[in-house]
Amino acid sequence: MKKTIRIIIIVLLFVVLFLVRAFEDQLFYDPLNSYFQNDYLYRKIPQIDRWNLLLHLFYRYTINSLISLAIIYMVFRNKKIIKFSQLFFTAAFLLLIISFSFSLRNNLEGGYLFTFYIRRFLIQPLFLLILLPAFYYHKKL
């Protein structure tokens, strides 16, 4: 595949990631989104359907992970890197979703910042920003 076509595909995949973020309110159930945008220090936690929230976090994480894997593949075109990334995304999801669900179950008793940052890793493709430079550095070695 030509380099210019790969670059165009990568840019389009980043646009899709942006669109997932732009339309998050219409696509996903997340009452914590408005909670963390406002006076969360002084307000009570909103009423949450925990199973629905966890299911939508799974959907969003899966969508972001698949797009991230496609970007990583288009950049490096290496199946070993993709296999490692799949394993990494799966292990990270399990660790994060368990931590997040325990935090929700305990009504954020561990602190709102812990829940806030765990949720950030679940709803945004932050691992892409970590893995791309790491694989690039590893490739240059």
Describe this structure in words.
By secondary structure, this protein is mainly alpha-helical. Helix content is 79%, strand content 0%. The mean pLDDT is 89.
In short:
This protein has 141 residues and is mostly helical. 79% of the residues lie in helices and 0% in strands. It starts with a helix and ends with a helix.
Blueprint (SSEs and pairs):
Blueprint: H1 3-22, H2 24-27, H3 31-37, H4 50-76, H5 79-105, H6 112-123, H7 126-140
Helix pairs in contact: 1-4, 4-5, 4-7, 5-6
Features:
141 residues, mainly alpha
Helix run count: 7
Q: What portion of residues is helical? A: over 70%
Q: How large a portion of the residues is in β-strands, by DSSP E?
A: under 5%
Low-pLDDT parts are none
Quantity of strands, as a count? 0
User: Gyration radius, to the nearest Å?
Assistant: 17 Å
Order of helices and strands: HHHHHHH
- The end-to-end span amounts to 25 Å
Mean pLDDT: 89
> Which structural class is indicated by helix and strand composition?
mainly alpha
Query: Tell me about the biggest sheet?
Result: none
Tell the overall outline: elongated
